[in-house]
Write the structure tokens for this entry.
Amino acid sequence: MADPIALLAADRHRARELADPWASLCAVATVTAAGEPAVRVLVLRDVGARLGVFVNATSPKVAEFGNAPTAAVLVYLPSLSAQYRLQCGLEPIDPAVVRDAWQFRPAMPKRMDWFYEAHPQSTPFASRDALLEAVAGLALPEPLTAPESAAGFALNPLEVERLELADGDTLHDRRRYALRDGQWEESALVP
Ligand SMILES: Cc1cc2nc3c(=O)[nH]c(=O)nc-3n(C[C@H](O)[C@H](O)[C@H](O)COP(=O)(O)O)c2cc1C
């Protein structure tokens, strides 16, 4: 039986070779406390053998991860005309792994992770100019290590749907994969 996670890995690899800017990205949809949908683009990372996302724990999305048993993750690869829709459980990544990965972040994201300690991500600020000044003026710890709020979540896909668009008169290829007792069950879907 096909493993959709292996299929996704192979497709992302092909997309990277085609310089597809979406090859390293996904969209993660959550549910707000008010029951509204919320979605944003995140970098989709390979964390060991698993997929994961790196975030800051002060951001609303992390609280929203707790509002539903799963998050919906979308991977769109325009270079392959392929779409993956994944229903994923989220599991915190070992903080030591997050701290190691954090060291490879560029300077500004590192600075922002420290900035979020006093000014949570996604909260309003007086103005962009005031924000630039406050961010530039932030004193960083020496040596520079990740704050506690730097976080990562591994994605545990429970259901995956793959759609590959076909040209012209050919039928699109749409399949659903559901995890049952540790095995992926494949079914064809009407595209
Ligand atoms: C191309 C791209 C990549 C992004 N990657 C990340 C990421 O890996 N982690 C992250 O927290 N935010 C990332 N963002 C920003 C998020 O989309 C979002 O604006 C931010 O995390 C705040 O989201 P929230 O208010 O839902 O918490 C990325 C945005 C873009 C456009």
Remarks:
- Residues 25, 38, 40-43, 53-55, 59-61, 121-122 surround flavin mononucleotide (CB under 6 Å).
- The longest strand covers residues 150-164.
